[in-house]
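Lab notebook, page 48
Experiment: co-folding of the full assembly
Goal: obtain a model of how the components sit together before planning crosslinking
Operator: M.T.
Materials (sequences as entered):
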Amino acid sequence: MADARYTKDHEWIRLDGDVAAVGITTYAQSQLGDVVFVDLPKIGTQVTKGGEAAVVESVKAASEVYAPASGEVVAINDALEAAPATVNQDAEGAGWFVKLKLADASELDDLMSAHDYQLYLETIA
Amino acid sequence: MTDTLTAPDSLATTPLHALHVARGGRMVAFAGYALPLHYADGIVAEHTHVRTAAGLFDVSHMGQAFLAGPDHDTLAGALEALAPADLLGLQRGRMRYTQWLDDNGGILDDLMVIRSADPAEDGVLMVVVNAARKEADYAYLRAALPGSVTLLRADHRALIALQGPLAAKVLARHCAATADLTFMSAISTRFDGIECHVSRSGYTGEDGYEISVKAVRVRAIVERLLAEPEVKLVGLGARDSLRLEAGLCLYGNDIDTETSPVEAGLAWSIGARRRQHGGFAGATRVLAELANGPSRRRVGLVLEGRIPARAGAPLLSAEGQPIGKVTSGGFAVSLGHPIAMGYVEGASSAPGTAIRAVVRGKELAARVVALPFVPHHYYRGP
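Observation: model returned without errors.
Model output:
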């Protein structure tokens, strides 16, 4: 399993074989606050890089989550329906949203490494 | 992820700004002010704390002003031309909720009017208006009120709210006179020696108080309240989720110049004498709606499932016809499911009516319910 890559919109994507898990970062969940629902796409949906992949509903607001790369949704994290707070507790682990079969894994090359993302956070915090 | 919250920049601040920052407040822009959305514990914990203990809110952004006239009747009479409440009949030491109405019966702002308990202060009323509307309100009042009435802004005063089932017990330790105050009553008193105006009122549906105090003294009161084990700071996020559960209107969302007080379910705030004799801005429409019923009404909605329907979400009848839209919506922390308020056509406004809310293209099943969603716990006397 490869290291996770990060977007400036605070999503992460982690490739395992030809399937990549996608979620929001620990920083993102801290900004959103208490998550009450995650509106996930149906399996089989085609998402495009930068397009909407899911919507996170916190107590305060609805926030769109964008796909870090293009591909087909091959799995969704059903456990979030009963336990949406998992996104707050383990955003970059058990709180994943979808798994994508990537159209072009080289799209990940444009994204930030964990180290670069940490530096990026320091510029916006 | 979309960044829905912008960092405050060149915003006004309240006298408690440094305290919010020092205590971990996540500061956001609201009505031109930098205010805490929540503190370290987050909205859910803060919301629950207000329902079970006592939460402390900084609401100093709201507009506090005094209106002074030659005597109570002259002053109240002048205000009655602009608002439909019975203000002539407002007793000393009591307060009323009302609305400034335009000539079409639309709501320019909603507010509290407070009459001092002290007979020596007859002819003075305090008003508390919305932050986002205060400049417009003051300009309107200056233009609309007769020369015998003077508006005095009280920008030098801070306003804090202590809300929750333990609020009375806590406040009595510092200000014994507040224990016997009943809901919608007010006194001028001292908090550990600090002069303040205290009213038994709020925006959460819980028992509680609002404390108006000179800005230079507010931090001392807040520090003493926060030293009490029952009290925690609460931000704007929980303020909004609490008032929604309590079925209370937010100006700009649930009420505005397009809505009348009758449509908004605020007819209870229109005095009996005012219903008979009118004589206030917008009376033609308001009295007609009281007699014949409005064409649409503000209702409470409970949604099935867990997806909140937020402001702007279209509402459909069971048959799929457009019947209105959501004006406030979110997740009811105390109830564990989504709730909303919105306007629907008269035929769909009866509690129990099954309707639908449209969120991101999905039609969600919803049911009209009586407001409030969470019962009020006001203190009306022993």
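Interpretation: The domain at 5-103+110-124 of chain A is CATH 2.40.50.100 (OB fold (Dihydrolipoamide Acetyltransferase, E2P)).
Next step: discuss with group before ordering constructs.
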